[in-house]
Amino acid sequence: MSERARLGVDIGGTFTDVALEFGARRWTAKVLTTTSAPEDGVIEAIEAVTGAAEVSLAEAALIVHGTTLATNALIERKGAVTALITTEGFRDSVEMGTESRFEQYDIFMDKPTPLVPRRRRFPVRERMNARGRVLVPLDEAAVEALVPALDAAGVESVAVGFLHGYVNSDHERRVRDILAARRPDLAITLSSEVSPEMREYERLSTACANAYVQPLMARYLGNLEQRLRRRGFAGPLFMMLSGGGIATLETARRFPVRLVESGPAGGAIFASHIAARLGLDRVLSFDMGGTTAKICLIDDGRPRTARDFEVARVYRFLKGSGLPIRVPVTEMVEIGAGGGSIARLDQLGRIAVGPDSAGAEPGPACYGRGGVEPTVTDADLALGRIDPAAFSGGRLALDRDAATAALERAIGSPLGASVVEAAFGVGEMVDEGMANAARVHAIESGKTLAERTLIAFGGAAPLHAARLAARLGIARVVVPADAGVGSAVGFLRAPVAYEIARGFRQRLGHLDRDAVNRVLAAMRDEAHAIVAAGAPDTRRDETRAAYMRYIGQGHEIAVPLPARPLREGDGAAIRAAFEQAYAALYGRAIPDVDIEILSWVVTVSAATETPMPPGAAGEPHRPEPVARRPVFDPASGETLETAVHQRPGLRPGAVIAGPALIAEDETTTVVPPAFEAAIAADGTIVLTRSGAGETS
Description:
16 helices; globular; Nucleotidyltransferase, domain 5
């Protein structure tokens, strides 16, 4: 058994989820996140699943872990005291940014505050040109002189980012050597290692973010590893990366900024695996937990990926108002619409939901842990969608009276509405917010939604999935087994993988193949070494890409490259691939304009098995419900007597007409009157909507 028992651990803003797999069997647990000491919740959930599976932690082969701790530290500004050492004359680059305005007509616009204040940004005399040639040697005496200033400021972590350091990292590495010799315990991040690409603001912002969270994450990961080892765990502890792969603990300690979107990335991997197993080539992944909702487009079994994203946005979810992070990431839209999102009336007396969340402490009003403001979970409880005695497998009994009191006080009474009407309003606002986010994301990606299948997971998603699908014109919804802990399960589907990017500017018309091949070979060797540390005996796959643009343009697009050294004649094939990708995005290619390549990307991953299809479901049959209860139906505006089924008791082939509820320990699937649910051979719930033209 020790060869096959594996655990996935996901820390969210509200819940900590754990999935344990042994062969074809799986055990799961969902507990409240212990914000002050997250490792406590992890150990509690692990002990719950190992106890249920009757195995010891010593028998586990590996653990794959994803967490929001780095994200929360950046958002809440609870990271280390950080300093930035940069080129003389460029001290204010992280504050000036790109000098663009994300709110063009708001004269009171607030820009994101840099993680490192000006008093802890230290300029040093040095200079390189864009080709990496030294123009001004590094003033090493000035670096030595900074040590007392760092000590006086109580600095715990330092980011080093010099102009054009992505081309030649000699000066950055020399600064690290000098500081490490004087202060061995100081955490040091080099921009040339964490984000070795052009665009100074984004590179320095990424380096500062990595330095800001590095001591926090190193302490947490160290504490967690020690507690796991004391309980007998002897296998590797892998960390989920934002780009969809997993890496060793040492890599995570060096580059914790790569963990910022690790939880959502696990969810996208989970949805991709389900899509591949069911043969779905166009999917909309919908992950709604306790704090946020994440929506991701998945085509041909692969989620979309990107090279950059933003955290800690000042203007809710307005692009450009956050801190840019330039690392590989699974591309998705994330909004503050989770079960714990707080509902209120805005200044115009309208119902507004989120982005702030009640989290795990104090949690929604119905948790009975001190929360007094109404949340989406309180609304779902008041509408009859949740059984208060069976929430989280009965481990957390909900207080319906507290939920209705909070809704009445904050929304119902001021609007002159009943509690059910107030709860209905909260649900409609959160569903429309998610639908609008999905529409905008699809339009920006040049995609459509109506022909897709919605895959719903996360504790709150199955409660809202059918209503969201109807708003988007989607006719089919899939709720996989163990949907309530989907990200934790997704961690166990992710390959050991690592992506490396390097800035190396080349004109396609004058491509220096030998120089490019040397750069790609070095990147390949580095990525293979990292993957080999986590999967030493596994076949590895490699992909390559170049980020390209027409000369004179400001942004580039990704173009795949052959996973081998470039040869004579490859330039024409690369140009054709670029023009095809460019035309797909912008409608046409531009003739007679040279193309330049700014960055090169190499991704190495351990090979994974192709998922097996679920097989035939068996004879259709209509099971009897275990109970009935009144549930408010938003489409009709009426409270309907609704059949309640327990998911573990449903056999493949079961067909359930709406209105119905399908309950399980971690979540409940709502089947509206316009939908019919069928249980597939592997226990997946497939909801099909009649009247595909209805969108309300």
